[in-house]
Automatic annotation (TrEMBL):
The chain crosses the membrane at residues 12-32. Coiled coil: none annotated. GO terms for cellular component: chloroplast; light-harvesting complex; membrane. This is Chlorophyll a-b binding protein, chloroplastic. Keywords: Chlorophyll, Chloroplast, Chromophore, Light-harvesting polypeptide, Membrane, Photosynthesis, Plastid, Transmembrane, Transmembrane helix. InterPro entries: Chloro_AB-bd_pln, Chloroa_b-bind. Belongs to the fucoxanthin chlorophyll protein family. It comes from Skeletonema marinoi. It comes from the Eukaryota. Chlorophyll a binds at E131, N134, R136. One of its GO terms (molecular function) is chlorophyll binding. The light-harvesting complex (LHC) functions as a light receptor, it captures and delivers excitation energy to photosystems with which it is closely associated. Energy is transferred from the carotenoid and chlorophyll C (or B) to chlorophyll A and the photosynthetic reaction centers where it is used to synthesize ATP and reducing power. It is found in: Plastid, Chloroplast. GO terms for biological process: photosynthesis, light harvesting.
């Protein structure tokens, strides 16, 4: 139902955030950030400061794409699937069949290469449990990074760590 879908979605977002936080803390893309040649924010900045340095138009593009994906999810993919409160498997994102058939080729977000088709139910259940546990851990991890940034020393494992800003 709703709570499991929410937990799965937030876990996936936290896993992306965790990896993104580590990458932003240590690396910068070698190409320009904008068409006018502006460089990406320095890796010397913490990820929160890097986000503040992103142009406003880029932030709006990110929010627009996320909003469209959320709307597609809430509408069940143009009626291709029931809403997650009406029986859809928690965490299963609606396919882009409508676009693939009428506009252009696009991969689905949930199982884009169809690996789950031939998997046993036991394997699917085991992998779902692993995904939920990894998502829970990622939520703790990203909140630990943010806590350590705003309250130095609050996370002993990150305190005085040279790889941490």
């Amino acid at each position: 139902g709703f709570l499991r879908h929410s937990e799965t979605k937030h876990g996936r977002i936290a896993m992306f955030a965790f990896v993104g936080y580590i990458v932003q803390s240590n690396f910068v893309f070698p190409w320009a950030q904008t068409l006018d040649g502006s460089p990406h924010p320095s890796p010397d900045l913490v990820p929160e400061a890097q986000w503040d340095a992103v142009p406003e138009a880029a932030k709006w593009q990110i929010f627009a794409v996320i909003s469209m994906l959320e709307l597609w999810d809430e509408c069940g993919g143009g009626g291709a699937m029931p809403h997650y409160t009406k029986g859809r498997q928690a965490g299963k994102y609606p396919p882009f069949t409508l676009f693939r058939d009428n506009v252009h080729f696009v991969l689905d977000l949930y199982d884009p290469f169809g690996f789950n088709k031939n998997m046993s139910e036991e394997t699917k259940e085991r992998r779902l449990t692993a995904e939920l546990n990894n998502g829970r851990l990622a939520q703790i991890a990203i909140l630990s990074f943010i806590s350590e940034h705003y309250i130095p020393g609050s996370v002993p494992a990150l305190a005085n760590n040279p790889g941490w800003h």
